[in-house]
Prior knowledge:
Blueprint: H1 2-24, H2 27-46, H3 48-51, H4 55-107
Helix pairs in contact: 1-2, 1-4
Coiled coil: 51-85
Region (Disordered): 86-122
Keywords: Coiled coil
Amino acid sequence: MHAAFMLLDQAIELGRQELAHLVAGDLDKAEAVASGREGVIDKALADKGLAESRDENLDGLLARLNELKELQARIIDEASRLKREVGDELRRAGQEQKRHAGYGRAARPTPRIQSRFISQNS
Length: 122
């Protein structure tokens, strides 16, 4: 059980690092830490000590699992915020592109009006 607690503590620390990277906007580092955290959590949950836990260890286990749950919720909230920001930026970029295209059309010279009814010989 002690090894599982150490793995859960390590997963909590990796989750804090992931959250810090997300807040800083460093998505590549956050992704790397997230995959490491996933592996640590898988190891902790696969540990036989968790299945054979005693009553005195349940409080510590529950506290760690609750902390992981709260940390995961904060990570999801931060990732959702970043996703909204990226979506807003993409929409603004699309609107800017349309605006610039409109300026480009307005700035181009218009061709001279040519009518087939006006004689070019005169």
